[in-house]
Amino acid sequence: MRSNTVGWLMLAPTIAILAVFGIAPFIYVLYVAFHHWNPFGADPLMTYNGANNFRRLVFDREFLLSIAVTIKFAFFAVVSEIILGYLLAQLFMREFPGRGLFRTVHTLPLIVAPIVVGSVWRLMTTPSIGIIPYLLKTWFGYDLNIGRDAGAAFLLTVIMDIWHWTPLVTLTLLAALLSLPKEPFEQAQIDGANRWQIFWHITLPMIRPAILATVFIRLMDALRTVDEVWMLTSGGPGAATRYVGLHIWKIVFPKTDYGYGAAISVIVLYLTLVMCWLLYVALVAPRQKKEAE
Amino acid sequence: MMRQSSPILYLVFWILLSFLTLFPIYWLFVISVKPAVDLFTTPSLILDTVYWNNYVKVLSNETIRRYMYNSLVISTSNAALVTVLAFMACYALSRFDLAGKENIFFWTITNRMAPAAVFLLPFFLLFTQVFTIGDWKLYDTKIGMVLLYCTFNLPFAIWTLRPTMDGIPKELDEAATVDGATTWQVIHEVVFPLARPGLAVTFILTWVFAWNEFLLAATLTSFNARTITTGLSEYVTTTGTEWGAMASIAVITLIPALIIFSMVQRHIVAGLTFGAVKE
User: Fold this and answer.
1) Which range of residues forms the domain containing residue B37?
2) What is the DSSP-derived secondary structure letter of residue B137?
3) How many domains are there within chain A?
4) Which of A70, A87, A96, A202 to mutate to test the interface with B (most CBs of B within 10 A)?
5) Which InterPro entries does the entry mention (chain A) (predicted)?
6) Peptide bond into B115 cis (omega under 30)
7) Gap between the Cα atoms of A148 and A271, Å rounded
8) SS3 A65
């Protein structure tokens, strides 16, 4: 075998960059999280206060509520995006006229910046001037008012997220499907397997790592969404769409309560990590066990 | 199987879907060619008059042009750097038996989990006080933004490329090594061509993330390295939003993005793995 030194050398730049730009700020945030620090408050100095910031979190109803709606949002958005994205990727594997054109059209939402996406969706849905409430009213007699209807506002943020991010899922899964070897599929067809059997026994196990990676990325990004939702609903009505990223950026940060903000971030990071780790174990461990046998 | 179903059916399906996909973008265009007063009247699906003044105003603004240039330089360099580093890292993770490599792999992704808002402060301190040489600061430089965007793009790239890399049969490298190829030749002539669709997708998506990033760019740049998303946000203020100008910048930014996309999209073609290891 070749020496592992080459492998480490190839990994080194990645580790170096992530250590400098990932670990250093994290240690700083962790340090701040154990301090009371509000530079513009009555007591501007940074003072050590143990786990008080974390104790405060447990009783902070607004924070707990924002965690709950964030998880609900991430769940609905990510599940829909994975299913839709996979179906579209499968369709893009087929030959049909204009495939390249449709693929470009379908990736367009990705290149619109999140703050612009949020702004456009806001202009499309604002009651009385937006095109969508207007059409829904004239065609179906339905009154869409995201300023008052919490359920509608929530649903709209999910739909916007699906519109914006399904293309990412389609592209990553398309790349995975394209690099699969062809023989197992040909063999299965010769053996008379139906489409469902091929999907369940061949395609799915082979692209499982790619699906897992995509779910991770989408889940993490959905859990820390800020710009789009802020522009669309400003977290309202009430706190119906005040996801945790918004909560930190718009509620905690302007009060310059940095110690508390840092504590929230550490907890959110921890929750995300646990969720992803559980997913990782659930999806990867059985496969490794099977391989080991 | 499905291949026998008529191409017309596909066409109808894709055209319908494209309408849904394109509608918000069409609406963005509609906003960009309307004078401000017309935005707040009864909406109509059809565009009757086109008002180009927003574009004239935005394109004649030299600052906006520079922001656009900065964005192009930063996202393209970042995507190139990230794709190369991730390719190397994934090759190492996939082909070498490194101690604790699965833990390293998982650790990389944790760098993307952090809610950005609170990390702005440590980044600001690092950029203005730690990473300095004499008078030179990493703050407000393009290279600073390129390196910074690695923190969330590199984990993403490594996680999307790893499955592709693992999918390339190891037998191919081994055969080439037996034939006397060096590591560089194996990478260049065997692995790279097969990983091309994956690399193209990784490049496109990391480019998009860097292009669209807002919070970090708004905090860590002031003038020299300011990007177009921060330029956009300058039209969104507490006293009111200049919708027309904002929308026209957004429409203009689609053009360079589309050019980059079409250049890279050509590489998203079926890899050669099909039948590559036939005995």
Assistant:
1) 1-51
2) E
3) 1
4) A96
5) MetI-like, MetI-like_sf
6) no
7) 31
8) helix
pTM here is: 0.87
What are the phi and psi torsion angles at A234 (to 5°)? 55, 25
Contacts of residue A224 in chain B, CB cutoff 8 Å?
Answer: 113-116
pLDDT digits (tens, 9 = 90+) for A39-97: 777 777 778 888 888 888 888 888 899 999 999 999 999 999 999 999 999 888 887 77
Query: Domain containing B201 — which CATH number?
Result: 1.10.3720.10
Q: Tell if the CB–CB gap between B254 and A11 is shorter than 8 Å.
A: no
CB spacing of A217 vs B112 below 8 angstroms: yes
* Whether residue B152 sits in one domain with residue B101: yes
Q: Cα distance from B86 to chain A (closest Cα, Å)?
A: 7
Residue pLDDT, tens place only, A194-220: 888 888 888 888 888 889 889 988 998
Whether residue B270 is contained in a domain is answered as no
Q: Are residues B68 and B191 in the same domain?
A: yes
Give dist(CA A174, CA B202) in Å, integer. 12
Q: Which of A4, A28, A249 sits opposite B96 (nearest CB)?
A: A4
Interface test with A, best of B118, B152, B187 (most A CBs within 10 A): B118
Q: Do B163 and A213 touch (CB under 8 A)?
A: yes
The answer to whether the beta carbons of residues A213 and A85 sit under 8 Å apart is no
Give the one of A91, A131, A221 whose C-beta lies nearest to B43's C-beta.
Answer: A131
Each residue's pLDDT tens digit, B149-185: 999 899 999 998 988 888 888 888 888 888 888 888 8
A247 within a domain of the structure (yes/no): yes
Domain range for A181 is 60-256
Closest of A221, A205, A214 to residue A284, by C-alpha: A205
Question: In chain B, positions 50-89, which contact chain A (CB-CB < 8 Å)?
Answer: 85-86, 88-89
B41 touches chain A (CB under 8 A): yes
For chain B, report the end-to-end CA distance as a whole number of angstroms: 27
Query: Cα separation of A111 and B207, whole Å?
Result: 9
Alpha-carbon distance of A84 to A91, in angstroms, equals 11
Helix, strand or coil, per DSSP, at residue B241:
strand
CB B202 within 8 A of CB B161: yes
* CATH code at position A229: 1.10.3720.10
CB contact under 8 A, B96 and A29: no
Task: Determine whether the interchain pair A105/B21 forms a contact, defined as Cβ–Cβ distance below 8 Å.
Answer: yes
Give the nearest chain A residue to B2 (CA atoms).
Answer: A94
Question: Which residue of A115, A190, A234, A268 to mutate against B (max B Cβ within 10 Å)?
Answer: A115
* Yes or no, beta carbons of A172 and B205 under 8 Å apart: yes
Buried b (16+ CB within 10 A) or exposed e, A158-190: bebbbbbbbbbbbbbbbbbbbbbbeeebeebee
